[in-house]
Amino acid sequence: MARNVVNIEEVSKAFDIKELLVGVSLGVSEGDRIGIVGRNGSGKSTLMKVIAGVESPDSGRVTKSNSARIGILSQVDHENPQSTVGEVVLGDSEKHEWASEPNIREVFTGLFGSFDDHIFERKFGELSGGERRRVGLAKLLINELDLILLDEPTNHLDVEGVAWLAQYLNNRKGLALTVVTHDRWFLDAVTDRTWEVVEGKVEEYDGGYSAFVLAKAERARQGSVMDARRNALIRKELAWLRRGAPARTTKPKFRVDAANVLIQGEPEPRNQGELLKFALNRLGKTVYEAHHLQVKLGDNELIDDLYWNIGPGDRIGIVGINGAGKTTLMRTLVGEIQPTAGKLVTGITVKPAFLTQHLAELDPSWRVLEAVEKVANRVEIGGARELSASQLCERLGFDRESQWTPVGDLSGGEKRRLQLTRLLMDSPNVLLLDEPTNDFDIETLTELEDLLDSYGGTLIVISHDRYFLERVCDRFVGLLGDKSVRDLPRGVDEYLELRQDAMNQQTVAQKEKKSSSAAQERQLKKDKVRLERQMEKADMRINQLLAEQEAAAFESSNLMEIERELEKIVLEKENLEQEWLHVMLSLDS
C-alpha cells in the first residue's frame, strides 16, 4: 500500500473577501501524479501552497508524514541576485561532492544543454526569466524528495525542454507530483489524476487531461448544470482528441465506447473546404513566397537559401531551438526585418496581424471594451459569422463585468489577451502569433482554439505549447539551427527525433574530440619530457666543450674544431628551446 505523504482536511482559505478554498479535503500518496486545473484566480496555486505549507489555511488542518520531504516550484523567484547558479542550486557543496553525481549531470544537461562550469558561475540576477525558471527546476529535481509541487513549470521552456521534463519525471518512480499548468500535452504526459478547482471546491477525476475532458463531457450530458456553449466546446475538444494522432491517446485512460457515443455526429473542428474558399476570396492565391531568402540579425546569419510558399488558408506551426530565428522569420514576413539576400513576395491583398511577445502600450485609463471598440465594433471571422466587440471579449475571457475594468488594472496575462482581441478585431487575413498562450488558463485556451477553428485566413504560430500547436495547425516546419527551414510531415514528434539525432551526433563528435585532445595532450607531455632530456644533454655537452676549449687554448687546429662543434650544439639547443616553448604553450591552452 502506498505511503501517505500529506493530507488536508476541511481546509478553507480566503484572500480579502474572496473565498478560494471552502472545506476542501484531499490527500497525496507516494507515486501519485496529479494535475490541477481551473480558471485563472480559482485557487490552484493557493491549494498548492497550502499543501506545501507555504500558506496556512484559515481553517481546517494539514498533516504530513514525519519523514515527508516536500519541495515546491512557485511562480515568483526569491533568490539573492548576487548568488551564482551553483550557489542557488547546490548551496555550499564542494565541486568534488557533486560533479560526479549522474542525476545532477542529467538535470543540468537536460535543462541547460550542457554541464559546463560557466553555467554554475553566472549570477542569478543576470539570468532571463526562462533561465531562472530552469534554475528553480534544477534546484528541485536534484534533491531526493517524496513530493514536488510544480506551479507552471513549462513557462519559458521550449517544446524540447517540455518533452525532456516529462520524460525525466516519468522516470522518477515513487515520486509524488502535483502540477498546475496550462500545458495540456504536459498534463497528459505526466499525470494520471486530475483535480479541478471550481467555486472553492475541488472535483476529482481519474486520468490525465484527455480523460478529464471525457469525464466532463459525460457529466455535462447527465446533468443540466453546464450551459450549452461550454458543453459544446467540451464535446468538440473530445472529438479532436479521439480522431487525432494515436500518440495523443496512449497516455489517457479513455473509455473508448463512451467517448464514441458522446462525439457521434460531432463534425470535424474545422470545415476545411469552407475556410479555404473564404481565404481565397480574401487573399487570392499568393500570401508569401520566399525565393533563396537569406535573413541575418546583426552579423548573425539565421536563415540561408530559403524557398518557402505560404498559401491562403495554411495553418503552420513553427518549432525550433532557441536562437534559431523563429521570431526573426515572422518579423521578416511582416516586413519589420528586410532580408539580406533573395526575394520575398507578399500578396497584394495580404493584411497581416502580428502578436509579439512584447505588450503594446495602451492608455491605462481606457476600459477593456473601449480599447477593443477603438479598433472596430464588429468583426467577420469566417463563414459569414460576425461577432461584436463585446462578444469577442467574452470569447477571450473578459466577461461582461470585466469588460469595464481599466486597462491599467489588468495583469500581464489579461493585457496579452486584450492585445490579441484588438488584433482579431482588425479583421486580418494573415495572423502571426508568437507564443500566444502565455498566461492563458485552459478554458480561455479552449475558447481561443474554437475561435481560430472558424478563422478564415492564413495562420502562422510559434508556441512551446505542443497541445495548442497540434490543435490549431495542420502543417509544421522546424528550425534546427542549421540555417534551414525544414518541413515536418510528422509534426512535433519528427522535430524531437531530429533534435535527438543531432544531439547524439554532437555527443559522439565531442567524445571523439575529447579522445583526440587527450591523445594529443599525452603526446605533448611525452614531447616535453623528451625535449627537456635533450636540452639537458646539450647543456652537458656545451659545458664539456667549454672545458676542452679552455684546455686547448694554445692548440689552434684542435681549438677550431672544438669551436665549430660548440657552435653547432648551441644552435641545436636554441632549436630545442623553441620547440619546448611551443609545447608548453600548447599544454597551457
Low-confidence stretches: 249-253
How would the global form be characterised? globular
Q: Could you name the CATH homologous superfamily of the largest domain?
A: P-loop containing nucleotide triphosphate hydrolases
- Work out the helix count: 20
What is the CATH topology descriptor of the largest domain?
Answer: Rossmann fold
Task: Describe it.
There is one protein chain. With 589 residues, the protein is an alpha/beta fold. The chain folds into five domains: 1-69 and 146-206, P-loop containing nucleotide triphosphate hydrolases (Rossmann fold, 3-Layer(aba) Sandwich); 78-143, no CATH class; 209-267, no CATH class; 272-489, Rossmann fold (3-Layer(aba) Sandwich), CATH 3.40.50.300; 512-588. 45% of the residues lie in helices and 21% in strands. It has 20 helices and 20 strands. The protein has helices at 44-52, 85-90, 95-98, 102-112, 117-121, 129-141, 159-171, 184-190, 209-222, 228-243, 256-263, 272-283, 326-333, 368-373, 389-395, 412-425, 442-453, 466-472, 492-551, 556-588; strands spanning 4-15, 18-29, 33-37, 59-64, 70-73, 147-151, 176-180, 193-198, 201-206, 288-297, 300-310, 315-320, 341-346, 352-355, 378-382, 385-388, 430-434, 458-462, 475-479, 486-487. The strands form five sheets. A six-stranded mixed beta sheet has the order 5-6-7-3-8-9, sandwiched between helices. Strands 14-17-18-12-19-20 form a six-stranded mixed beta sheet, sandwiched between helices. Helix 10 (228-243) packs across helix 11. The longest helix has 60 residues, at 492-551. It is globular, with a radius of gyration of 32 Å. It starts with a strand and ends with a helix.
